[in-house]
Amino acid sequence: MVRRVPSKHRNAPIAREKDKDAFLRLGLLLVVGLGLASGFVYAGRQHFAALKYGYETENLRREHDRLTEEQRRLILQREEAASPAKLEQAAKRLGMQPLQPAQLDPLRQVSNNSESTKPLTARADAKTTKRELQTNSKPAAKAQTKPLRSRPI
User: Fold this and answer.
1) Alpha-carbon dihedral of residues 121, 127, 131, 133, nearest 10 degrees?
2) What's the rounded Cα separation, in Å, for the pair 107 and 113?
3) Spatial distance between the Cα atoms of 33 and 25, rounded to a whole number of angstroms
4) CA-derived radius of gyration, the chain
5) 152: which of 19, 66, 95, 136 fits an S-S bond (Cβ 3.0–4.6 Å)?
6) How far apart are CA 12 and CA 14, in angstroms?
7) Which DSSP category does 152 fall into?
């Protein structure tokens, strides 16, 4: 193979036209590339944020279910504690006893027929009620001043 041009010989300069729009095209390509890359970054951030909110939503849903079950359990405990059998046992432990028929004031019921919305007054002692009926002509006035008390068993 024969070399026609020596390797140390420089080529003659060629006259070229300058491309004045090359810088604008390069700038436009850079802006479009940056816009496309920022769009991918934004979409990635949105995707990971959606995943994060999905996990948080699932955790909150589990917490809601747990709290709903706890609320049901507490309502059931409250209903059991408010049952008549439990209330009666608690009243007996406190020393209360059931209301006896002699503790009701029959004269107060008869004298207040017009005021039927008032509750019946329980008397603390049935013997004093009989004595008041025999000696006092106004037992209803005295019944209003006596406080309600429970007698120990």
Assistant:
1) 40
2) 10
3) 12
4) 49
5) 95
6) 6
7) P
pLDDT per residue as tens digits for the range 100-120: 887 787 676 655 554 544 444
Amino acid present at 27? G
pTM value? 0.42
Q: Which of 21-30, 91-100, 116-125 has the highest mean pLDDT?
A: 21-30
Single-letter amino acid, residue 96: M
**CA proximity to 151, closest of 119, 121, 123:** 123
Q: Which of 118, 117, 84 is nearest to 98 (CA)?
A: 84
89 vs 85: CA distance, rounded Å: 6
Question: Under a CB-based contact definition with an 8 Å cutoff, are residues 133 and 106 in contact?
Answer: no
DSSP string over 83-147: SHHHHHHHHHHTT--PPPGGGB-HHHHHHTSS-TTSPPPBPS-HHHHHHHHHH-S-HHHHHHHSP
Written as one letter, the residue type at 131 is R
Place of tokens 């005021």: 115
